[in-house]
Structure formats: C-alpha cells, structure tokens
Specification:
The protein is α/β, with parallel strands linked by helices. It has a single domain, classed as Rossmann fold (3-Layer(aba) Sandwich), CATH 3.40.50. It contains 10 helices and 10 strands. The chain has helices at residues 30-38, 69-76, 99-109, 125-135, 140-153, 169-182, 199-216, 227-233, 251-256, 261-296, and strands spanning 4-16, 42-54, 58-63, 84-89, 92-93, 110-114, 187-191, 219-224, 236-241, 244-249. The strands form 2 sheets. Strands 6-7-8-3-9-10 form a 6-stranded mixed beta sheet, with helices on both faces. Strands 2-1-4-5 form a 4-stranded antiparallel beta sheet, sandwiched between helices. The structure holds adenosine-5'-triphosphate. InterPro entries: AAA+_ATPase (IPR003593), ABC_osmolyte_uptake_ATP-bind (IPR051921), ABC_transporter-like_ATP-bd (IPR003439), ABC_transporter-like_CS (IPR017871), Gly-betaine_transp_ATP-bd (IPR005892), P-loop_NTPase (IPR027417).
C-alpha cells in the first residue's frame, strides 16, 4: 500500500473578476499563461504546485497573508474549485469526483478546522460536536460519549449543554477542534486553527494536538503564519509566497538554511522572539538572585 496520503500535481487556482468568474488554464499555452499572469482581472492564488504528504505526517503550510495558503487547503477538498491540476487523497482522485462522491468523501475521509468555521447556532455544544457522527449514522449513545470525550480534551466538558452564542470566540474555536477530533477521519485539515486563542491556551492546544497525534497517527495538513507553531508541530513544512512553494523540508532544516530572503525574514523574526524571551528570563533570574541575596544579607 502506498504511504502517500495527499498527492498534489501541477495545481493552479486563478480567481477571476471577469463576468463569468471562470478562467480556462492550459499550462502548455505559454501565451495564455502570460496573459493570465499580466491580467488585472485575474489573481493567481496557487501557482503550479506539486508535492506529496505522507500518511501520518503533520505537514505545515506557512506564508505571509495572501500567499495562497487558505486557497490551497480549500482546493484539496474542492471547497475552492481548482483551475488546473490533480489532487489524490488516500488513493481517491478528488478532482474527478462528482458532487455526491465529493460529499461522501469529505464526510468519511476528512475533518476540517477552519478559523471561521461556523457552528450550528441552534444546536448545543455537545450536539455540534456529535453532528458529524450523526451524519454517519453512529448510534446516539456512542456519539454522545465520543463527543463528551472530545470536549474533555479541549477543556469544555462543562459547556456541553450550552449554545454556541454563550461561548467566547476562543471557546467556539475549541468546539470546532473537538468536532474535528471526534470525526475520526484519517485526514485532518486545519487552517489557522489556533490563531483566535490567547497565547497560553494556544500553546496548550498545540501540546494537546502533539499528544493526540502520538495516539492517532492522522495525516494533518496545517496552515499557519507562525514559524514557532510550524516548528513545534510540523514533521515537514512548505513555505508559500505569491502562490508558489519557495521551500519545503523539515522545520529545523528550514530554520537552519532558509532558501531565500523571504524565508530568512520568518527565521529572523523567530530568532528575535527567542532572543527577547531569553533576555526576559535572564532579567527575571537576576531580579530573583538580587532578592535572595538581599534576604540573606
Ligand atoms: N474569493 C476570492 N476572489 C478573488 N481573489 C481571492 C479570493 N480569495 C482569495 N483571493 C486572493 O488570492 C490570493 C491568496 O489568498 P489566500 O486567502 O489563499 O491567502 P492566505 O495565504 O491564506 O492569506 P491569509 O493568511 O490572509 O488567510 C490573495 O491575493 C487573495 O486576495
């Protein structure tokens, strides 16, 4: 059996402001491709991407705002329709599926956590988390038990009977994460899932994901603009700029050997954060030492 979970071949996405909203792409037609790149009506959001994600891998996509990360993750399950290219997930040709096949595929093979992925307002937190299992025909008792367990993982078990409107943005985000965890799908797609959370909870959720992944061995496709998050979570990462992948590799390799100035800037920012944190710790230690010494004398 193949160890490839996601295979992306020559993927393009061009958004068009033209009346039809459609762009026909032919990568072999150089003149057409030049005119698309030059057109003010067309935005090339994803440009000729080919890569593979292995089964059980946490694959990070990182890049500045507008580099095409959200478009790419949405193209994988055709929430955004690709303009050109082929996507295969766990052996299924996603690009060739009709609507019904696609719905089934999404339901059983993938779970999504998007930053603004809406919860169902008229369902309780517990029912929101259990909803995917209901669609799959899982019996009520079992789905409620599983949903409760997922809520415990994200620390919201006490909120099970509340409605989403009673929860803060960060808590709703955690409900979304619980819903994805409970789905038990082999592929987890996460688009900036922790970006709405305050730093402490964000770190806790990252730790929780690392711990869960040790048990689950899912394939996780994870979008972030944060190198620290990428380094903590990622087995491999791709750095995107203007729709292209400019570097792909293990996070530590990217950190040690940025391929160009764009990547180097992320690394520089991260080094600066580490330096500042070290300074703060040193200052705290010095203050503590001073206090201890003055107590002794
Ligand atoms: N529906 C759309 N119609 C037209 N252009 C779009 C659409 N969605 C995205 N774009 C454009 O495509 C490019 C890539 O956007 P995308 O949202 O994929 O980037 P991103 O890296 O996810 O950014 P962010 O981190 O801000 O979410 C941008 O130039 C954006 O303006």
């Amino acid at each position: 059996m193949s160890d490839v979970a996601i295979a992306v071949e020559e993927l393009w996405k061009v958004y068009s402001k033209s009346k039809s909203g459609k762009v026909v792409i032919d990568v072999d037609d150089e003149e057409l491709m030049r005119s698309i790149e030059a057109s003010s009506e067309d935005v090339v959001a994803v440009r000729d991407l080919s890569f593979e994600v292995k089964k059980g891998e946490v694959f990070i996509v990182m890049g500045l705002s507008g580099s095409g990360k959200s478009t790419l993750i949405r193209c994988l399950i055709r929430l955004v329709e690709p303009s050109y290219g082929k996507i295969t997930i766990n052996g299924y040709d996603v690009t060739a599926m009709d609507k019904k096949e696609l719905t089934e595929f999404r339901r059983y093979q993938t779970a999504m956590v998007f930053q603004h992925y809406g919860l169902l307002p008229h369902k309780t937190v517990l029912d929101n988390v259990a909803f995917g299992l209901k669609l799959r025909g899982v019996p009520k008792k079992e789905r409620r038990e599983k949903a409760m367990h997922a809520l415990e993982i994200v620390g919201l078990e006490k909120w099970a009977s509340y409605y989403p409107s009673s929860l803060s943005g960060g808590m709703r985000q955690r409900v979304g994460i619980a819903r994805a965890l409970v789905a038990d799908s082999p592929i987890l797609l996460m688009d900036e899932p922790f970006s709405g959370l305050d730093p402490l909870i964000r770190r806790e959720m990252q730790d929780e994901l690392i711990r869960l992944q040790e048990e689950m061995h899912k394939t996780i496709f994870f979008v972030t603009h944060d190198l620290d998050e990428a380094m903590r979570l990622g087995d491999r990462m791709a750095v995107m700029k203007d729709g292209s992948i400019v570097q792909i590799g293990k996070p530590a390799e990217v950190f040690a050997n940025p391929a160009n100035d764009y990547v180097a800037r992320f690394v520089q920012d991260r080094r600066e954060e580490i330096r500042k944190a070290d300074e703060q710790i040193a200052a705290l230690n010095a203050a503590n030492d001073k206090e201890v010494n003055s107590d002794v004398s």
